[in-house]
Each structure stands twice: as C-alpha cells, then as structure tokens.
Specification:
The complex is a heterodimer of chains A (240) and B (438). By secondary structure, chain A is an alpha/beta fold. Chain A has helices at 44-51, 74-84, 100-110, 115-128, 144-158, 174-189, 201-205, and strands at residues 2-12, 17-28, 33-37, 59-64, 67-68, 85-89, 162-166, 193-197, 209-214, 217-223. Chain A starts with a strand and ends in a 17-residue tail after the last strand. With 438 residues, chain B is α+β, with helices and mostly antiparallel strands. Classes of the chains: A alpha/beta (240), B alpha+beta (438).
Amino acid sequence: MLKMSRVKKIYRTSLVETHAISDLTLHIEAGEFVAVMGPSGSGKTSFLNIAGLLDTFSEGQYLLDGRDVSHLSDAEMSRIRNEKIGFVFQSFNLIPDLDVFDNVDVPLRYRRLPRAERKDRIERSLEEVGLQSRMHHLPSQLSGGQQQRVAIARVLAGDPKLILADEPTGNLDSLMTGEILDLLERANEQGATIVMVTHGVECAARAHRRIHILDGRVVAAEPISSPTAVHDISFEAATA
Amino acid sequence: MLGYHLKLIGRSLRQRPTHAMLIVLGIALGVAVATAFSAIRHSFAKDPIPEKSSTLHYVRIDSWDLSSYWETVPSQLTYIDAMAIMRSDIPVRKSAMFRAELNVVPEPGKTTASREAARLCFGDFFTMFNVPFEYGKGWDRSADEARDPVVVLSKELNDRIFGGSNSVGKLLHIEDRDFRVVGVLARWSPSIRYYDLVSGRSQSPPESMFVPFNFAGPMQIRPVGSQSSWKPPSGPGYEPEMFTGEKIWLQMWVELPTADKVVAFRSFLDAYVIDQKKVGRLRRPANNQVTPLLDWMAERHSVPPETTVMMIVALLFLSVCAMNLMGLLMAKFLARAPRIGVLRALGAQRWDIFVLHLLECEIVALTGGAIGFVLAWGALFGVNNYVKSMFRRADLFQMDWTMVLFAVVASLVAGLMAGLYPAYRVCRVSPSVYLKLQ
C-alpha cells in the first residue's frame, strides 16, 4: 500500500540544512494497522504529511497503492488525497461553522459525487460512529470524543484505502480513546490500511506492528500480536 | 462547485461580519466616488439619441470672406445658405433654427409677461430629434409654409401657464400675437442640448417653447447667443441685417439616413458653393462640413476636460481603496489558514482554494459596489442641486443602465485588484503548514 525508499525531507535556509526525514525506507502492506512511534521532533508528523501527500519530499521514491507519487501535480495529489486517503487529526480539524452533516460532506463535495449518494454515505457513516442524531449540530456543540467521531465519520464516508491518524486520541480521555480505537480497528477490519502516529503504548498495542522513528529514520519495526499480521518488513534501520 | 463555494463563503462572512463589513465599506467608498464622477462625465459624453445619432448631421459652409482671419469654418450658417439647404429634397428631414427669448403673456391685460427661452425651428425638428410629446404633436411642413401661428410648449411651461392640463387648441399670447398650442412636450431633459452646441451653455435645458421659424422675420426675432458677421448690413432694419447680409446666426441640421444620401447631400453643397462663387459669395476655398452628431459633439468639446480628469482621479482613488483592502484580505485569509489546510487535506485543489477566495472577494466587492452605487446616486442628487442655479435644472447628471454596468464592472475589477494576490498566496502554501497551525 505504502512503499517509501530513501525518502528525505530537507528544510534549507541560507545558514542551515535541517533534515526532517533522512533516508526513510518503509513498506506497509495493504490492510495493515501500523503504529508509528517516536519522541517529539523525531519526524513522525513529517512522515505522515509526506505519506498523506500533504507535503513534498526532497529526495527518494514513494509508491502509494503501486503508483509513484514522487512527482505528481497538485491536482493529481489532491485527487489521490480525496479518493484514497483519509485523515484523522489530534485536534479533530472540523470546520467550526459547518454542522456535522456538512463537515462529513466536505470530501464528498470535492469528489463531485451526486447529491443522493453523498447523503447516503454521510448518513451511513454517521450511523456507524453513532452520531446520526447529532447531524445538524455544530462542532462546538459536541464533546471532544464526539468531534473525533465526526472526523472518523468524515473519513469513513470517503471509503479510503489508507487512513492516516496523527495522535487521534491525544486530546481524549481513556474512555473516548477506547471508542476511537474501536472505530479505527473496525475500519481496518473492513479493509482500510491504517497508519497511526501515537505516543501511547496502549494505543500502539491495538496495531499489528510498531514502527519507531528517530531523527527522521526508521530505527525499529516490531510485530505486536498475531503472527498473521506480521509481514515481511523491509526496513533499513539507521541505527549505525 | 459554485453553489458549494457560495455556501462556504456565506458561512465565512457570517462568522466575521465586522471584518467583512469593513471591506464592503472600503469598496463602497471607492465605487461611490468612481461612479459619481464617471456619471458626471457620462452625462456629457453619452450618445443623446443613440437610435439615430449616426443619421443626424450638422451642416456648415465656410462663408467667411477672404479677408477674414478665422481659419476654421464658422459654426453657423447665414440665412441665405440655410434657406438654400431648406430647399433641398435630399435630407429626409431638415431644420434651420436659432435660440431666442420671447415675452409670453398668458392672459393679456390680466397677467404680466414672462421672458421665456424659445427655439424657432421648422416642423421637422420634433421628428428629427425624437422629441417626446405628452399632448398633441409638432406642426407639419404645410404649417411652416402657411406660416400658421402655432406653438409647442415644454412640460414645465405648460405646467406653469395651464396647470399641467391638456392645453392643445388653447391660445397663448407671445410678443405681439396669439399662437395656438398644438403640442405639449413630455418630460424631455437631455443632459446636453445637443441640437444646439453653439448658443450659451450646452448643459442648459431645452427651451420652454418652440415657434415656427418663419415667424422670425414678421416678428423681427433676433437670436440669443453666438452670431457674427464679416460684412456690415446693406441697409438699416432687420431684413438687411439678418436675411440678406452675411450674418452667421443659424444652426442647420439634416437627417441623412443612408450613406448614399450623405454623398448626394455633400455633392449638392459643393454645387451650391460653386454657384454662390459665381455670384460673388463664399470666396474662400470650399470647405463644407456635414458632421455626424457625435463627431460634432466631440468637435465642440461637449465633454468638459475637467470631468475626464476628475473621472481618472476617481478611478485612481478606487484603485487605492482596492490596494489598501489587499492587506485586510490577506490578514483575513491567512487567519483562516487552518480551515484551508483541512479543505486541502480533504481533496480541495489549489485552484478550488483560489476560486473560493477570489469569489469571496468578488461577492464582497459586488456588495460594496451596490452600496457604492446608491451613495453615488445620492452624491449626484447633491451635485444636481448644487449646480441647479448655474444650469437652471436639477437633473443635469443622471444615472442610467450604463452607469449600473460601470458600477458592477468597477466593483469586480476592484475586487480582483484587492483579492487576486491574497487568493494566490493563500492557495500556494503547503497544506501541511496550515495544519500545523491547528
């Protein structure tokens, strides 16, 4: 699903060169649930931005669902983001002046789906996260957990192959954390590949394997539970 | 997507109404000033009779003497030349004319006389210039030939003398004789008295009454306004001075609806001048001018140059308003960066973001433009009242559909000037940068 080879992200100024990602090589199979871990500033979010085509990279190759996305135009990247990728953010990133229905509608609008199909998808995804009764509430009228469920409904409505979650439970209590992880697990069971950046060991425990990033490189990858979920991971640990 | 964009813009504007209102007011101020000054210029520059302006021609013949120091052809005709043209069958309509002032006594012996502006013209005048009538109509050619004592009144004079009633058929005492009212004009107030750009202010309203030209001689009516002569009259009295001499005092209009008619009429004039040279008149080289109305207006500088300067300054002011709003819009758009980041992450392309923001600028600009147009209308009302005593009318400057279109275009251009760069900037930043701002 996601294959990065020697990917680098370098921020250059006239005085310094900062390597946010250095020679990152990583392979995630379709259907995996991967937790990406690492200390603050290790490059987790930069990795996630590149993986989600939210940011470009300086060197290397990135194959997403078998397609080289290293040199795509903005329009092509936007289309892939819209059709293949779903994002779940720590701070929910709902649009405050749109109600729940309209928030879930956003990616479907940019996919130019017919009205009836959009309505059907929105209602089904909100039902899946248990918020169909809050369809016309504004985000400010919902709790943090409910807002994150709306964000997940927004992802589910788009039916993406890849879900990128950046500390999705970082702002939630333990009860809500469990609910959100349940939803992500369910999406994974339905076929979506999930890459979740997290600091929480309990959260990471829900994943099939953990990938550790340090200084912009993958330093370790370890399977967690079921042997069937453990794949032949190719990584070049830059621990030397 | 347009509908969706409009929905998002509506929500966004409602979210920060004060900010939006500031931008709207900025555009409104600029559009108001630009529209008001452009409307003033437009009042002078617009085609006063677009349906037939190309067929109306002003006629001049160089009747100066060889000894005259004037280099240009005179702006009016002598009586001899005007009457020669009146005898031509080539123009479908024609009228020699002049402006005068006549005493009008509504009820002789009971009321005092009032001095009214009058135009002495031929019956073709009314059809030629599409003059609108409220009651009755103008007189015909037979009335001209028979020298019928008929008169057409302006709406204002009819209101004053006859209380606005249908006065057709009633008698009106003018100078020393009675005239029968045959027509009353509807409201007719062209911004420029385009049929006479020679006598007095061209911005003055049309005359209060219209009297058959052929009464000029019997009533010895003299023109008010421009008149000149290079040759002293052959004798004392009205006729030698005005009719048989070289006094230049009459305006001459002909209606030539086709190019063939124009060519034929020019040939007629050339032949006429050759004939006149044989009898010792028109000694300068032939220089006949048959000038279409709009060209004549341009030649007479009917658009005061200061109105053009004021319009340019006003447009610059609108540009300054737009450029100042650019900063405000930039701040507004960048403050919305996280929201844009979300839209980009969810599939919006740069183009979508650019269009969304430019559309918002244009909606705000059009709202400002609508308010600006109303303000400009109010400003014109004030200006009209200010110049009322100068031009004896309170409707000199008017708004029309051209100015509505101008205000719309000015608003859109101002919106584009103010919003193009902020919209471009906001669509170019990487979505990951926006999302970090969350």
